[in-house]
Amino acid sequence: MKALKYLALLGMIIGVVSLTSLNFTDEITYSSLGFELNWEEARAVELISAYLAEKNASIPDEELREVARTMYDASRRYDVDYRLVLAVMDAESNFRHNVVSDGGAIGIMQVKRVVAREFSEEVGIPYERDVLLCPHANVRFGVYYLSWLSRHYDNDYAVLYAYNVGYTRARQNMQRSSEPKTGYTRKVMEEYERNRSRLPAV
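Predicted structure:
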């Protein structure tokens, strides 16, 4: 009986010592990924990762969280709603990171090499011919391009139209304030609204 009491007391002491040694902050560290997130950011990354898994994104499981983190970081850095980014991925590639279109658009966000070449300095990723096959680079270029287009057009429909057909063609076909409601732009906006109803803003 005394032995049981002794073990119980020892367990309590160990528990107290363990609790007092913890650092209760609002930061959570993913050391394997090399960055720190607060709880809100960590939750957003988890939600994005779960969303990509639900959509059967063709990204290796071990990379899924890292791609979600890249998307979250790029969306925050370039001031683009991550829920819109997800909607663009859905329409552009159906979440396939290794697909190449007949028109030469590459990867999960279907970015063309001319975009990567043009904006490599701004994005901070050196241009190489196959750089867009890396999902992390593809996401960063795609999100930056959406941000860049948003500085040239006044609404999401115009931004999405230009993303889909290219800036030069869009400039020829519409005014800055136009709202081109094509099959593509409607599809993205409908998915965006669904994402807004199920995923939190950050």
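Summary: The chain has one domain: 25-198.
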